[in-house]
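Deliverable D5.2: sample structural annotation.
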Amino acid sequence: MNAHKIPASPTPPQLSQTRARPTPGTVYWFRPSDLRLDDNPPLLAACDSASSGVLPLFIFDPSYTGATSPLSGRRRLGIRRAAFLLECVEDLRRRIVAEGGELVVVHGPPEEVLSELAGDGTEVYCQAEVASEERRALRRARTALEGRGARLVETWGGTMYDLPFGTDVERGGGAGAERMGAFEWARAVAAEIPDTFTPFRNKVEERCSIPSPRGPPAAGAFQNVNQLDGDSAMPSLADLGFSLEEIAEMQRTDEEISTWPLSERPMEFRGGETAALARVSEYIWEKDLLKIYFDTRNGMLGADYSTKFSPWLSHGCLSARRVAAECARYELERGIANKSTYWVVFELLLRDFFRLFAAKHGDDIFKLNGTLGDRARESHPNSRPWRFDRKIFEAWTAGRTGYPLVDANMRELVATGFMSNRGRQNVCSFLAIDTSTDWRYGAWYFEEMLLDHDVHSNWGSWCSGAGMTGGRLNRFNIVKQSKDYDRNGDYIRRWVPELGRVPSPLIFTPWKMTKEEQKKYGVSVGADYPTPIVIPTGVERKSDDGNKTVDEKGLSGCKEGSKGGRSSGSYHSKHQRQ
């Protein structure tokens, strides 16, 4: 969350405006998931290979920045994630300039940009990807480069541990044999890993060690000549297709949140490696919070209940190995090695697991029946008849479900681009299990909204949360979770101000309030705040006065005026705390 301003920049160069001068040198193609200099293995490989400096390149791919969900038709790159991406690229450019180089920024299909940029003998290095859309983009780029006598060199990066992750899979090679490419090796390794995290973790921790971070490239590693005939300009949000109204609304929300008490104010995220490294220093060393992470990690209110490293990790602004190394250094220098110092690294390993899980199962993680496949339509205990009710989905996205914990988290997501891990588990369980909504709609919405969207972790988590990986189905009791993790209701009051005067425990089950209590606490359930749209596990059907509050047909119990309010993505409402 940040007070974003509209960047004052010219429209980025298009291929129709810009002609490239072929270069026989080495190009490093930064992807949206490796936007850093520190401990970037593919970038370091390019620097080691280059004879006359590396040309750094970032391409704003319209198939990435302008893509829409095939289910909902919504943008897949929401305005907050787009703003964060722009900040990441701009920061990367500043850091490269400080090293004597220049980041070339272009807008266009990567295969066309690279074809015009490359010449005979050019080597284009990039990070290897495992998800299908990213693989297709790399294949198109490879084909275009080969047509110019150039080649694409994919190098493994983005994980804390190295391949082969404790498996016995060798990369191949030897006399007369060509080694597997990075993706092929990763897929071969992934085929050997278990489908659940705990046995994977046990094997990796037993057989592997985390490599030490290598630092940034040496001085003079980058070319300082723009290889394009036109300006290499950063685009603005407007250039990426966002309206002035959307941009202004985001700014208004940021300004409003900046007035909240510091203890309740969400994290202010700014994209880029500079901000990422500053947050690592602040969290671990300056505020000395690492030692209590395990105890605070399930919080939801404020900025420091968790590390908040994830947006930078997802954009590759921060190396997981750097974080692990800082945790190890903290244990040594501060003399504190406990469950908290371990747990941060433990959760970084989960990111590695989901990347390999995606490599192993391919497009199955994007399918309704997940990795269960046909078993999901048979007798598997996790099987369910999926459905899609637009009113239910829109109530969920708008934070108008009638369940305060769900609504508070969904409103925070819209307003900031972030949600706690505890919140994510609850809203996923509610949508996928309690409403039996096609879980892919939830995954697509998270992809649009989350600053820290990572294709492997997001889709793997939703597929698992919906029970479609075949593991144990974790069905969350929303009311119990509210009482356990927002004991006094402070988080709900902050994000659901309609309930601002309602005390706990009533704030967790507002549908149970009598008419007298509603009047006393200044809220009319069904008008100011909606009645529940469904009856999830463990939730009573009747209020204290015996009146039925949840219609078994779902939204028919809600008044017309209570179903919307925030479906446009706006945080502002008539219920704002005065």
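Annotation notes: DSSP finds 21 helices and five strands in the chain. The two ends are 22 Å apart (CA to CA).
The annotation will be released with the project's public dataset once the embargo ends.
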